[in-house]
Design brief:
single chain, binds manganese (II) ion, about 60% helix, Beta Polymerase, domain 2, six-stranded mixed sheet, alpha+beta, 3 domains, about 10% strand, Ubiquitin-like (UB roll), Hypothetical protein af1432
Length: about 500
């Protein structure tokens, strides 16, 4: 990575940007880090440049990119925040200060987790750009995780899944969220990752390409006739999102995979509606899958038309239809939102309303737990994180129960479970867990095995499979399913 690549990217978004400032920041950081090396053996300044480059990709403003180049200077070199302030002014210095404060949080167990989240939101309250820099810094650290010892690797990946990725989603920066999640997925669930990667990116690739090409050919003709300029893309789905769907809906890869995904980008809003009309005239839509997020955007500002149709060969095909601006906003979230509002000169004070709401919650709540509880409703939509007494973190689908947790810990813990302690209180095995719960499973050594009733409230595939396996051999259990109430 070179400073020229960053300059090039910045100029693409904003031809009038003051490039001299970027060069100055680069020279300053390069001098400060001197001969320091990363664990990978690369010069330290490479990390600073990679961080800044991703910031330029998501269209962050110039001060943010400069702060990205300088973000590790006060912490890791003999130059201070004062030096940065003198050379680059108060705005850049304040951003670097925000990052330096955030990096002091270390992750240990449940309390630290909550405190961590709170600090992230506090930093967001002061200046949301600090979080953008932190994301890009983290992304580069993830990309170089290989050099770290196994335990540290897992810890960083886990922390990213719990804290960084959900917040990136909340801010609508999907591109960063997906990139972070896929890397963490690889480290946290290496086998599942490898299997999915092979199926999706090797086995199915040709089939996908051929199918998309067919859809494109048919559509292009009609769009040309209507005089609509368009861009049709095959949508690659992030692997972790496929994995989550498989877990949540209890379905096999092929069922999830069988939905093809195509994106059409057109110039104007009225082109979006015309294009949807064309798609529906070519293929029969599933009526319950037509979504107009242009007329009614999602709470996080997301806009697009969605529809699922029975495409060529009657294959279910998802379409997203949107303008270029909507598309970039969907990838870069708030960063692009400001960019389009103020063409190059971002105005970070003019925040979307929903961020203001988070900040209001933050101002009104003293207590960390209350704050987290109020915010997490939005942040953690479909995953929860619970803790073992030792402070290990377990990632579960929403509405998971102690029995799911038990089988995640160990098959034997599941098979011998009789009850659970949730936040130190006795709980039945079927009561849904909540984010941040501390869970301990009560076991009984002499217990023969699981109960088939558990299948009714187990949410994860893993728990269901283990319960089925353990009960399959018991003929009595099979009869019991046919004749409820049968006594031994
Ligand atoms: Mn860093």
């Amino acid at each position: 990575m070179t400073i020229d690549q960053i300059i090039h990217k910045v100029q693409e978004n904003n031809p009038k940007a003051d490039i001299a400032l970027l060069e100055k920041a680069y020279e300053f950081a390069a001098r400060a880090h001197g001969s320091q090396k990363r664990r990978t053996g690369a010069p330290y300044i490479q990390h600073s440049l990679h961080t800044a480059f991703v910031l330029a990709q998501i269209k962050a403003d110039l001060s943010t990119i400069m702060a990205g180049i300088l973000h590790d200077v006060p912490e890791d070199t003999e130059y201070t925040l004062d030096d940065i302030s003198k050379n680059f002014g108060g705005e850049v210095a304040a951003l670097v200060e925000g990052i330096t404060k955030l990096s002091k949080i270390k992750y240990r167990g449940v309390e630290r987790y909550r405190e961590n989240l709170r600090k992230m939101f506090l930093a967001m309250a002061q200046d949301i750009r600090v979080i953008l820099i932190k994301f890009c810094d983290r992304l580069h650290n993830l990309r170089t995780l290989d050099v770290l010892p196994e335990e540290k690797r897992r810890r960083i990946a886990q922390e990213t899944m719990e804290i960084y990725a959900p917040i990136a989603g909340l801010l609508g920066i999907w591109r960063l969220k997906w990139q972070m999640e896929d890397i963490c997925f690889k480290y946290l669930y290496p086998e599942e990752y490898k299997k999915l990667e092979y199926k999706y990116e090797v086995e199915k690739k040709t089939e996908r390409n051929q199918y998309t090409q067919r859809v494109k050919n048919i559509l292009s003709q009609r769009l040309n006739e209507e005089g609509i300029a368009y861009n049709i893309e095959d949508r690659l789905k992030p692997l972790y999102s496929i994995y989550k769907k498989m877990q949540k809906k209890d379905r096999k890869f092929d069922e999830i995979y069988d939905v093809f995904a195509v994106r059409i980008i057109v110039p104007t809003v009225s082109d979006c509606y015309k294009t949807m009309g064309i798609v529906h005239s070519l293929w029969k839509p599933k009526s319950d899958r037509i979504k107009d997020y242009i007329a009614v955007p999602k709470p996080n500002g997301y806009r697009s038309l969605h529809t699922t149709v029975y495409g060529p060969e009657n294959k279910p095909t998802e379409f997203q239809i949107r303008t270029r601006e909507m598309h970039e906003e969907s990838l870069y979230g708030i960063a692009a939102h400001w960019y389009y509002k103020h063409k190059g000169g971002s105005d970070y004070k003019n925040q979307p309303k929903w961020i203001q709401e988070i900040l209001n919650i933050q101002r009104q709540t003293e207590n960390t737990n209350d704050f987290i509880n109020k915010v997490k409703l939005d942040v953690f939509q479909d995953r929860i994180f619970v803790f073992s007494p030792k402070g290990d973190v377990f990632d579960l689908p929403e509405d998971a129960t102690p029995i799911d947790f038990a089988y995640l810990v160990h098959t034997e813990v599941g098979n011998k479970a009789t009850g659970a302690l949730v936040n130190d209180r006795m709980s039945s095995l079927d009561r849904p867990l909540k984010n941040g719960d501390l869970v301990e499973i009560v076991t009984e050594k002499n217990r023969k095995g699981p109960n088939t009733d558990w299948l009714e409230f187990a949410k994860t595939n893993r728990a269901k499979e283990k319960i089925r396996q353990a009960t399959k051999s018991s003929r009595f259990e099979q009869f019991k399913r046919i004749i409820p109430g049968m006594k031994k």
